[in-house]
Design a protein that fits this description.
heterodimer, A: mainly alpha, 2 domains, B: mainly alpha, 79% helix
Chain lengths: 192, 177
């Protein structure tokens, strides 16, 4: 159990340290470590966390860290109070690097913001962050989230429809995430 | 100090759907109501908080807390911004795992999951503009995507690689290498 706590701390410390580009880019990292690398939870459970994070207030990075900290412990068979400790550790770990860095950066970065070296580094970081976002979306297109034409054609094609509808509503009609999620939940209740 | 706490607690409580959605709330609180910082200063701060690792809302809180009350102020704003989500998510986690297998909850989440994938996919198109993607650098996000999606490379290494490449590129451009 101690190992799991240490791994949680180390993983979320790294995510906080390298989490450039805001919540969604961090989601990609958390997914990579928590689901693909350590198998602390399934892709389906991870997607549920994202849904909950979208519906509840608070930064998505904090929400995900809190949830993963709890669920990774309970999935491993430990009682809920050990899960609470896991949440605390993961949340503390994800905030710690920003805290240290922002204190230093608050002092120095303002002065060097327009320095060419800093600008060059960011001119490569920003496009890479877009790639992170795209990869996170592609990695979520699994049979757990969409089913497959072979297993259940009805659920598969409905899921594809919901996905396309949601994408168009967000990009073209600038629909807000919360009403969209509530609507799609309702659609799920009717269709499945 | 207490004012810092309550105001950032409120910001943490009403941030729904990620960092950019909270800029208007931060602006009205720290610039218009409390006059803790100037509007121009907030714009610079947003640029810095975006280019720094970590959680956008927390980063902004740390800066303002530090500016007003030093390290203690930064501690207070960090705690205040993180606390609402921590409490809410923990409460949900404690209950959700029990009714997750309920057939109606399962149906609702079958509808929600594809929408969540769309929520993650949509910023790719929106942020593409902000990142100034053009024909000369469009290969960077494509390579990053393929590395993570097909080869299973950890996004952490992709970010490190991009940062180091940008640094080397800058040095070459300036003729230092």
């Amino acid at each position: 159990m101690i190992t799991l706590y240490l791994l949680l701390f180390w993983t979320f410390f790294q995510i906080g340290l390298f989490g450039f580009g805001g919540g969604y880019a961090m989601v990609s990292m958390i997914q990579g470590e928590v689901v693909t690398h350590y198998h602390w939870m399934t892709m389906g459970q991870f997607t549920d966390i994202l849904a909950i994070s979208q519906m509840t207030p608070g930064p998505i990075g904090i929400n995900t860290a809190t949830y993963v900290g709890y669920t990774s412990l309970t999935n491993a068979g430990y009682a809920w109070y050990w899960g609470v400790l896991g949440s605390t550790i993961a949340t503390f770990a994800v905030v710690l690097p920003s805290f240290i860095l922002m204190l230093i950066i608050s002092r120095f970065l303002m002065a060097y913001k327009n320095h060419p070296t800093v600008e060059h580094v960011f001119s490569w970081l920003r496009p890479a962050v877009i790639g992170l976002l795209a990869a996170a979306a592609l990695c979520l297109m699994t049979k757990e989230n969409f089913s497959t034409p072979a297993i259940c054609p009805w659920q598969f094609w409905c899921s594809v429809g919901i996905f396309l509808f949601a994408l168009v509503s967000l990009i073209v009609y600038k629909m807000k995430p919360i009403p969209l999620i509530l609507l799609c939940g309702l659609v799920g209740l009717v269709l499945f | 100090m207490w004012e810092l706490f309550t105001n950032f607690f409120r910001i943490g409580l009403f941030t729904i759907g990620g960092g950019y959605a909270m800029i208007p709330l931060i602006e009205s609180t720290v610039v218009d109501e409390k006059r803790w910082i100037e509007r121009e200063e907030l714009l610079d701060l947003i640029a810095v908080a975006q280019s720094c690792p970590g959680i956008f809302a927390i980063n902004i809180g740390i800066f303002i807390g530090y500016k007003l009350r030093g390290v203690k102020g930064a501690l207070v704003t960090t705690l205040a911004t993180a606390l609402p989500s921590f409490i809410i998510i923990l409460t949900i986690a404690l209950c959700f795992n029990q009714f997750r297998d309920n057939p109606y909850v399962e149906k609702i989440f079958r509808g929600i999951r594809p929408a969540v994938v769309a929520l993650i996919a949509a910023p790719v198109f929106k942020m593409g503009k902000m990142a100034q993607i053009s024909w000369t650098n469009v290969w960077i996000p494509i390579v990053a995507t393929l590395l993570i999606w097909l080869l299973g490379v950890s996004p952490i290494y992709v970010i490190l690689l991009a940062g180091i490449s940008g640094y080397i590129y800058g040095q070459v451009r300036e003729g230092k290498l």
